[in-house]
Each structure stands twice: as structure tokens, then as C-alpha cells.
Design goal:
The protein is built from 18 helices and 15 strands. The protein is of the alpha/beta class and 495 residues long. β12 and β13 form a beta hairpin. α12 runs antiparallel to α15. The protein starts with a strand and ends with a strand.
Length: 495
């Protein structure tokens, strides 16, 4: 077993140290190869405290340092145990993995210590324990590969020998950086360069080799490398798979594009109630299934699927339910019962899951199914179901579905007739309401569409599109995030 010495100011990171130690021990992969050490767990021995932890730091193959705001206790020479441990590991040529917590005001000596470490090593930064855990997992998997303990890496972390940096789309990286900065205070910017960003995310090796996850997330043509990574969406009028299929689409693109398009497909084909404009120009749009639940189900299916399978993620919308099918069964350590309770995260593709979390598509690692259940219950829907055999299946139940009427053509349930005075005679309030709903679903399925493109699509003026978007802002946070003078993306969230 490879020993890991976990070093930090004990008081500042007591909870993180313990949680990280337990995570490494309990993980189905890491637990087979690594034995983490905590000074707090040492039995009473003859050695002094300082001699004990320095002896362990010298003997452990890996030094794992967690640094934050505090410098910690200082000895007679004014040096903290954490710095002593780092110096000991360095003197003994041990592997050193450094993780620095972002934000806060650092003690001057802690700041100087981090600056001392920085020229020697590539360090990672984190904002919370989820980020720390994901970064540590990726680093330790790389360690196992480098030292020959793993003949085959997890699929998402494996090197793709056929790909070069030319396959990475700079615009997709830029969109990610913008989202990750907003959601998780991502520490890097495009000025650091794409290789540095990819290496920080464990998506590219120091030698410039790309992982499969890098191509899925930021590739110009992901399906060229992984044809089954596409997402297939279908709507059925009844409650079973039956021809004719009224709506069927196959979506291709990068990971984030696939999720956005698939979510948009579902939202565009379910019922929605549009509120009134009697008191203001704001419009409340209520979908029968919460968009957060749909997004969670689809994102989880794409994150945790078995990418070595020739099957694709399938999304099937029936009159009474939404089914999301994902190739591959449950990961080791997970059960259907655990899915409905707070549980440890067991990502099938951890290297892929980490950037998805940073971009805000996953709120908390390991809580996605709980969030999905809560959102559906809050809406008054039946509790979603989870079934796993060779493949994974999530069922979200619908309600208030009008029999024999297709969801996309269903009547908008509540429209303020007073809005008629603001439209031309051939533009009815019903049409206005339907357009507002369709604009919302368009923003969800294509985050990069511009107001001019929306205007062309719906055959109205850009001013009308702006007014319709403004009408949605009472219920939704809708913000245009610019990436340049002409390009950007929409941030759309339920308030």
C-alpha cells in the first residue's frame, strides 16, 4: 500500500482532513492502493510530536498538502509543522500534491509559504470539499498510471493517442471558463492558455496528451472519436414505445451542448402554463416538470454512462412519464436504495464529472438524485423511480396531461387577454404566450443563440424578442454572458 501523508493546519482543515482520509479509504479504486495517514490517529508513542510527524512525512511515498489562510503553530524557529512536513518530504524526494483553498485573507507567513511552494510544483486550487475530493482523485489516479499500478485508466481519464490539441475548440473552453468562474470561482482565465487550463482539470498530461474527457467536453468533433456519445430523444403520444414516432431527434456535439439540447427537447414537448400580464409585463412560465429535475436526470445520465458501450443515452417522453436511459449499470458500492438517500459520490467518470461540476451543471457531487426527487415532490409529482440492471433508467412522472393532445400543441393554460391591446390584430395573446414559452425553451436548448437569431427564428423584431425575454425575468434569472463583442451565452435559472 502506498502511504499518503495528509498535511495541513489541523484546526483549519480538521473536517476536510478526516473526510478526505475516509474517502480515500472507502473508494473502490483508491482504497486498494493507498493508505492515508493522519497525525491525529497516531497512538501514544515515545517520540515527540514533531519527531513523529516528520518521521511519517519522510517515510510516506506521497505528501498531500492542504493550504488555506492560517499558518499554524510556530516552533522556536518560527516555522509551522506544515512547512516542516513539506520540507521533509522535499528533502526525501517524495511525491508532493498541493491543494490551495481559494479566497479569504492569508496569514503573511502562509502566503510566503505558498509562494515558496509554487515555483517547485504545479498546485491545484479548490473552493469546497467537492472540488478538493475530485482534484485529489484525479491526481491519485494519475499517480497509479505513472507508476504502473494501473494498466488501464478509467475510460474518461485514459489518453487518446489519436487526438492532438488541434481537436480542442477554444470557444468551448472559453465558455467553460466563464461559467466555472461564475459558479465556482475558477482560478484560471484564457490568458493562462488552453494547455494550462486542461492540465489544471487533469484533462491533459504534462507531455501534451489529451484524455477522452477533454474531447467530450471541448472537442470540435466528439462523435468522430466516440460515435455513441450522441443523445437520442423521442416523443410518443401514448404510454409505450409505438410507431409512428411524432418527434425524434439525434443530438451531437460536446458534452454541454448535448445536455442543453436534450433538456430543450423535453421542455419544448411538455405542457407549460403561462401566467398573466395584468399587473406587469412579466410572465410566469410554469412547466409541468421542473426544468431542474429534467436537467439533473439528463446530466447524470451523460456523466455516469458507460462510454465503452455502443449504446447512446436515450430520452423518451411518453404521455404519462419521462424516461432517461443510460448505458451501464450502477457503479461499485452503489445501490438503488442509496440513490434515494444522501450518499457518497461514486462517479463512473470522475475526470469528466469534475469540470461538469465546476460549470454548475451539477450542484453537489453525490446529491443529484436527492435534488431531483425534491424538485419533483415540490411540484406535486410522484416520486421519481430509479432502476438499474445492465443499463440505468430514471422515470419522472408527469401530471395534468391532456389525453390525445400532443404536449407541444397543448393549449397554454393561462394568458392575459389584456395583452391583446399591445399586439397587432393577427397576433393573438395565445400566440404571444406560445412564443414566450418557445423562446424560453430555445434559450435552454441553445445557450449561444443571439437575439437577432431568435428574431429571425420567430419572425419578429429584435425589440420584440427583448421584450419577451424581459417578461420572463420575474420568474427566471436570464442573463447574457458576453465572451466577446459578438459572442456569448445565456444563463437561465429558475428563481
Amino acid at each position: 500500500m502506498t502511504r499518503i501523508f495528509i498535511s495541513s493546519v489541523q484546526k483549519e482543515f480538521a473536517a476536510e482532513r478526516k473526510a478526505l482520509c475516509n474517502y480515500i479509504r472507502e473508494d473502490s479504486l483508491l482504497g486498494k492502493f493507498f493508505k492515508p495517514f493522519l497525525f491525529e490517529e497516531l497512538p501514544a508513542i515515545d517520540l515527540s510530536a514533531q519527531d513523529a510527524y516528520l518521521t511519517e512525512a519522510a517515510q510516506s511515498e506521497i505528501y498531500l498538502g492542504i493550504y488555506g489562510e492560517q499558518y499554524g503553530f510556530e516552533d522556536a524557529e518560527g516555522v509551522s509543522p506544515t512547512e516542516r512536513e513539506f520540507d521533509t518530504a522535499t528533502a526525501n524526494n517524495r511525491q508532493r500534491l498541493i491543494y490551495v483553498k481559494r479566497g479569504g485573507t492569508r496569514h503573511p507567513k502562509e502566503d510566503a509559504f505558498i509562494k515558496k511552494v509554487e515555483p517547485q510544483l504545479i498546485r491545484k486550487s479548490f473552493n469546497d470539499f467537492d472540488e478538493l475530493k475530485a482534484a485529489v482523485y484525479a491526481s491519485l489516479v494519475r499517480y497509479l498510471e505513472k507508476h504502473g499500478y494501473l494498466r488501464t485508466l478509467p475510460w474518461d481519464a485514459a489518453i487518446n493517442e489519436d487526438a492532438t490539441l488541434e481537436e480542442i475548440d477554444p470557444e468551448k473552453v472559453e465558455r467553460f471558463v466563464t461559467m466555472a468562474k461564475e459558479k465556482r470561482s475558477f482560478p484560471l482565465s484564457m490568458s493562462h492558455g488552453i494547455p494550462k487550463i486542461l492540465q489544471h482539470l487533469e484533462l491533459m498530461t504534462d507531455e501534451g496528451k489529451l484524455t477522452n474527457a477533454a474531447l467530450l467536453l471541448f472537442g470540435k468533433r466528439p462523435q468522430h472519436f466516440f460515435i455513441s456519445s450522441e443523445v437520442k430523444c423521442a416523443q410518443f403520444y401514448g404510454t409505450k414505445v409505438q410507431k409512428p414516432i411524432p418527434y425524434y431527434q439525434v443530438f451531437r456535439g460536446s458534452f454541454f451542448e448535448l445536455v442543453d439540447q436534450a433538456v430543450g427537447f423535453v421542455m419544448n414537448h411538455i405542457d407549460a402554463a403561462v401566467g398573466t400580464r395584468s399587473k406587469s409585463n412579466d410572465v410566469d412560465v410554469e412547466f409541468e416538470i421542473p426544468v431542474e429535475a429534467v436537467s439533473e436526470a439528463i446530466c447524470n445520465a451523460c456523466v455516469h454512462r458507460l462510454y465503452t458501450s455502443s449504446a447512446s443515452v436515450q430520452i423518451m417522453l411518453f404521455r404519462d412519464r419521462l424516461e432517461v436511459l443510460s448505458p451501464g449499470g450502477l457503479p461499485e458500492g452503489m445501490t438503488e436504495e442509496k440513490m434515494t438517500k444522501t450518499h457518497q459520490s461514486y462517479p463512473v467518470n470522475p475526470t469528466l464529472a469534475y469540470p461538469v461540476y465546476l460549470a454548475g451543471y451539477i450542484e453537489h457531487l453525490g446529491t443529484g438524485t436527492i435534488d431531483l426527487i425534491d424538485k419533483c415532490r415540490e411540484k406535486g409529482l410522484k416520486t421519481p423511480e430509479f432502476h438499474f440492471d445492465e443499463d440505468g433508467q430514471v422515470i419522472i412522472w408527469r401530471k395534468n396531461v391532456t389525453p390525445n393532445v400532443t404536449p407541444v400543441d397543448a393549449e397554454i393554460q393561462s394568458v392575459d387577454k389584456g395583452d391583446a391591446q399591445n399586439v397587432t390584430p393577427d397576433v393573438t395573446p395565445d400566440k404571444v404566450a406560445l412564443r414566450v414559452k418557445n423562446i424560453l425553451t430555445e434559450l435552454m436548448s441553445n445557450r449561444y443563440i443571439t437575439t437577432d437569431e431568435l428574431a429571425a427564428k420567430f419572425k419578429v423584431s429584435s425589440r420584440t424578442i427583448t421584450r419577451d425575454i424581459n417578461s420572463l425575468r420575474e420568474t427566471y434569472t436570464i442573463i447574457w454572458i458576453p465572451l466577446s463583442n459578438t459572442k456569448g451565452y445565456w444563463k437561465v435559472e429558475r428563481k
